């Protein structure tokens, strides 16, 4: 029995790692994402059980108490959170993951300090990396939550000598870490580097605007995985290293996908304070497009255009999320389909405030997965679409990204709604998007504007379509 237990534990770890990989694979499709989440959760349960056996945990009272409290809080929050607030939820979970990993390093340092044991060099370096990455993830994620929740301004926050100050903080962390490697039993210095890591997390996120949150959320997710892997090295647990590496790698891949979708480098997202441009500046950048006229319609005219079309492509954006209009959009889609209209949804990778934001909202409204099309798949179909209905999207449909070399969004892949036979844009007004650039689409001959709240306008369209 004593010989079998270590082998059984390692086999369980192997099964758990396989379930993690399978779960990640299934998360790549909305149709299989829920099953993928369950599979990965089962893998984590096996990993936790095997780890408790491996560490010879004999008193399970505190573990079960923590499990019960954590499960209750998680279930209540997951049940009550609105789908429109899912980016905030993801930010919080990223932050808690980083905090948990950093606390592992702090607890291990404290244990070794109390036991008067010499701290091995590899463990010391792992702890310092874990504290840095976990601390940055913790405070950075909570600041991202505050921006998304509207507790602080979502605009980039900058001040003079910001980058030199960040470099000074990083230098202080490196100096403190070097001191701890030489003198590993200095508690004040260790607490000092913990504090610096927390400040670095704040400084990491404050210059980033709300429109860049899809990149930031995916990057922080990656960092939470790297922090978990570092914690695995601290406590010498292979399963934690594997799980952290998988999360870190997948998050980094997703971050790269988000950056490509915005035609910007990760460095630009993190350090350029993009999104501070004013509306007037955006208009200037677009060659004075704001001097042109737009053509507006009322819901009755919009309903006639949609109801007598053969093919309609709906383009959801952040405005739909803010107005919580996804259920009204689904109702409109159902009414059009009853009239024989072919309805598709075009999803831009960075529409919203987190990766897959539009997919999540439309899934809540029970929109069939088969109607959701990625940008690369839907763009060739716009020329055959009779009407493209844009709901609260701005920069991701701006033709300037394709034609205006002076535009700050030039080269950014967009949903080519201007190629449709007619385009209806639902928008509150003529304000610019996150990039501060006037949208050329609004002034096209084939474009009509339906001004008002996304939820109200879509509801009125539904009412008018029913009367056709």
The unreliable regions are: 277-289
Overall pLDDT metric: 87
- The ordered H/E elements are HHHHHHHHHHHHEHHEHEHEHEEH
Physical arrangement of strands within the biggest beta sheet: 3-2-1-4-5-6
- Classify the beta-strand content into a percent band: 5-15%
Largest sheet: 6 strands, parallel
User: Would you count the extended β strands for me?
Assistant: 6
Q: Helical amount among residues, as a percent range?
A: 55-70%
Q: Overall 3D geometry?
A: globular
Structural class: alpha/beta
Oligomer: single chain
- Rg result: 25 Å
- Alpha carbon gap, first and last residue: 76 Å
Number of helices: 18
Structure description:
The protein is of the alpha/beta class and 468 residues long. The chain is 60% helix and 7% strand. The protein contains 18 helices and 6 strands. The chain has helices spanning 4-26, 33-54, 61-80, 86-114, 121-149, 162-182, 187-205, 213-235, 238-262, 266-271, 279-285, 299-307, 318-323, 326-338, 357-364, 375-378, 400-403, 454-466; strands at residues 311-316, 342-347, 372-374, 387-391, 422-427, 447-451. The chain has a 6-stranded parallel β-sheet with strand order 3-2-1-4-5-6. Helix 5 (121-149) packs parallel to helix 7.
Give me the secondary-structure topology.
Layout: H1 4-26, H2 33-54, H3 61-80, H4 86-114, H5 121-149, H6 162-182, H7 187-205, H8 213-235, H9 238-262, H10 266-271, H11 279-285, H12 299-307, E1 311-316, H13 318-323, H14 326-338, E2 342-347, H15 357-364, E3 372-374, H16 375-378, E4 387-391, H17 400-403, E5 422-427, E6 447-451, H18 454-466
Parallel strand pairs: 1-2, 1-4, 2-3, 4-5, 5-6
Helix pairs in contact: 1-2, 1-9, 4-5, 4-8, 5-6, 5-7, 5-8, 6-7, 8-9, 12-18, 14-18
